[in-house]
Amino acid sequence: QVQLVESGGGLVQAGGSLRLSCAVSGRTYSSYAMGWFRQAPGKEREFVAAISATGGSTYYTNSVKGRFTISRENAKNTTYLQMNSLKPEDTAVYYCVAAAFRRYGSREESDYDYWGQGTQVTVSS
User: Fold this and answer.
1) Environment class of 90 (CB within 10 Å of its CB; exposed 0-12, middle 13-18, buried 19+)
2) In whole angstroms, what separates CA 19 from the centre of its chain?
3) CB neighbours of 107 closer than 8 A, spacing ≥ 6?
């Protein structure tokens, strides 16, 4: 069973930074496209960022472009989301996701096979 374990969430002031980490079990991590979604209270879950299995391609939702960076270290079975210039609107539960045996991630929840438990990110004004 593939498990995703997230860490790095917390409380920061607007303009601050956080780095989320997602550690993935198993030997097939390098075959997974990875991504991050988030969900704020009262809102639908939304796509944040994705990275290809090789790490060679990334893409982001417009609201985080230029502020967030997704990366991965396949040797460590870990995906990261570096979050800079945080805004109160970024407050949400952030979920790490994995798409098994896909080269590229996507914006669609249905394309992902495994989900982390979520980690809370709170940005104060």
Assistant:
1) buried
2) 10
3) 47, 50, 61
Would you say the C-alpha torsion 34, 9, 67, 73 has a positive or negative sign?
negative
Please list the alpha-helical segments (H only) found in the chain: none
Structure tokens at 73: 């270290």
Q: Are 12 and 83 a contacting pair, CB within 8 Å?
A: no
**What is the chain's pLDDT, residue by residue, as a tens digit (125 residues)?**
799 999 999 999 999 999 999 999 988 888 999 999 999 999 999 999 999 999 999 999 999 999 999 999 989 999 999 999 999 999 999 999 999 989 999 999 999 999 999 999 999 99
Residue whose C-alpha is closest to residue 22's, from 47, 3, 1, 5: 5
Asked if residues 82 and 21 have their Cβ atoms less than 8 Å apart, the reply is no
